[in-house]
Amino acid sequence: MKKYRYPSVLTIAGFDGSGGAGIQADIKTASALGCFSTSVLTALPVQNTQGVRKIYPVPVEAVADQIKAILDDIVPDAIKIGMVHTPQLVNTIVSTLAQYKKIPVVFDPVMVATSGHRLIEEETINAITEKLFPIADVITPNMDEAAILAEMKVETLEDLYTAGKKIKNLGCKTILLKGGHQETSTITSLFYDEYEVFHSFETLKFNTNNTHGSGCTLSSAIAAYIARGKTLYDAVSSGQEYTYQAIENGTDVQTGLGNGPLNHFFNPQKMIKNEMV
Asked: What is its EC number (predicted)?
């Protein structure tokens, strides 16, 4: 009898009880793209569509134990790392993953929420660049996060190009610089690849507040497409298209009183079954 397995994505990220971002968005995204989703909780933010009220930390020992429990049992085809808000957490994740075979990593450096709330401690940035960047196959900062990493204002497309080169010098393999905060009718995002070549992706900008969790969704979509076997460039391209459509299909829906979520299940796919060799 033939046996099969699902392409699997592990998300290591924070919680969002309002369902639009964090681990909830990651699970929804991977599931909508036909993958099996496992998760490790790094923090418990108290938040809704209007913003983050408080963040309760998860003990680093618990994070390490969660990672080991998953990797000892359901080996993922890709890993998405999201909210990592302390140096101790960075060190724990990196040292624990190092005990296992290398798995493709998508790192979304969550530093600023959609609401503008700063989510990361200053001293964590050095730990992220020194420890997490080297193990990540792609990082996905938005313009606010690129500004923090590049230590410069990032307000225009030209700024994004400059910031990308500065961030690359910090030790990343590739970078997807998200242009969603551009004040233009067309949004341009840049993928800066391992050969130091920029690839641009353009989409129309929607007049909507329903973008809560868009960064989590995009990074998880990229991880899902990697898990499905796409090349990194194709995963980045397909991930952006999925996120664009998820935003488009949720523009006219009100969920909460603030920044609403995306429509992750605008076209859900059946779970993919790959034959085991």
From this structure: 2.7.1.49
Tokens of 195: 């050969």
| 142-162 pLDDT tens trace | 999 999 999 999 999 999 999
Q: 9 near 76, Cβ under 8 Å?
A: yes
Q: Of all residues in the chain, what percent carry a pLDDT higher than 90?
A: 86
User: For position 117, what pLDDT does the model report?
Assistant: 62
Question: What is the amino acid identity at position 249?
Answer: N
CA pair distance 262, 106, nearest whole angstrom: 20
245-254: which pairs have CB atoms within 8 A and are 24 or more residues apart? 246/29, 246/217, 247/206, 247/208, 247/210, 247/211, 247/214, 248/206, 250/208, 250/210, 251/206, 251/207, 251/208, 251/210, 252/208, 253/210
178-188 tens-digit pLDDT: 998 787 889 99
> Which residues pair with residue 115 across a beta bridge?
none
List 198's β-bridge partners, or say none: 192
Do residues 77 and 108 lie in contact, with contact meaning Cβ atoms separated by under 8 Å? no
Q: At residue 59, what are phi and psi to the nearest 5 degrees?
A: -55, 140
Are 95 and 87 within 8 A, CB to CB?
no
| 143-150 helix and 157-168 helix, angle to the nearest 10 degrees | 50
**pLDDT tier for residue 244 given thresholds of 50, 70 and 90:** very high
